[in-house]
Amino acid sequence: MRIAVNTRFLLPGRLEGLGWYTHEMLWRLVQRHPEHEYLFLFDRPFDPAFVYSERVTPKVVFPPARHPLLFYLWFEHAVPRVLRQWKPDVFFSPDNFLSLSSPVPTLLTIHDVIPLQMPEQIKWVHRQYYNRYLRRFIARADHILTISDYVKRSITEECGTSADKITVAWNGCRTQFVPVAEPEQAAVRRAFSDGKPYFFYTGAIHPRKNIPRLIRAYTRFRARTGAEVLLLLGGRFMGHDTAVTEALDASPYKNDVRILGYVKDTDLARLMGSALALVYPSLSEGFGLPVLEAMSADVPVLTSNTTALPEVAGDAAILVNPLDEAAIAHGLEQLLDAAFRQTLVEKGRAQRTLFSWDTAAEQLHGCLAGLGG
Fold this sequence. Notes:
Elements: E1 2-6, H1 17-32, E2 37-42, E3 56-60, H2 68-86, E4 90-93, E5 106-110, H3 114-117, H4 124-140, E6 143-146, H5 149-159, E7 166-168, H6 182-192, E8 198-202, H7 211-225, E9 230-234, H8 242-250, E10 257-261, H9 265-273, E11 277-280, H10 289-296, E12 301-304, H11 309-313, E13 318-320, H12 325-334, H13 338-351, H14 357-372
Parallel strand pairs: 1-2, 1-4, 2-3, 4-5, 5-6, 6-7, 8-9, 8-11, 9-10, 11-12, 12-13
Helix pairs in contact: 1-14, 7-8, 7-12
């Protein structure tokens, strides 16, 4: 079978959510199924480390697709031209977009339909593109792979898609997220939190992630308990969110809230594994990978009781209404209890066994084989 893949998010030194998903799935697919030929379509110069075997042919396809106009040119003109030349049996696009112009059987991964559910959270120019094309992409796909039962339900409800057209393959966890020994935890605390315990958030600093309410809930927690536990926020600002800076400026504990910016992977695993708890009260998630990463590192979790997050967390987390700052603050107070934290850790050890990149990659292969023969 000849398999063409959109690999535009395999960015050297800058793998984030979609990039990690693409990498984890494709590395396993190529290693486990060397009987196939693969064409990887990049939109800019690539790292040879992403060419996982001699069975992979990499190709840079102009133009770099990071703007709606360039999305259109890449998917509707450049990619179809290459597919006509290479003649694949199936095309896999792991990042919500596909080519409407190509007749090649297509497997599409949809990670969420947040642009349809919460359009106000999307930049105006991208919102116009999603409004015009996302439903058309879903309708055009010959089969859809998605990352949670919640997203599957959302696709059927928002787009009227048959559930039979959708396969759920849960994400797995990267191998670097493991328990961190106490001496190393102490070193991390010295480096990042003045030696004090800390709550940790990782992800984009974006309105959907609910950071202003988290900061205000943290302020309540500090005022009620007097506990010197810091709040560390790891992630890039996505756009200009003045609500975050306003919440921070209004807090008497703002010096104990540390915005770390983008955190490189080696530090991210250490920060996660050394945290008192992960705090992740996001408003909407298609999966919520940090929850699984925390459970893999034996770190207790506070997260939202909405969207896909209860599906990932099971009974191994404090689940709160993300709109209720008092509930978030109360959850933070509960996390001061060492025995309670250990209970969550033990439940997390059981819950994390449900998720595996190996299993997800085999489900990917099954879907590709079903389309490409």
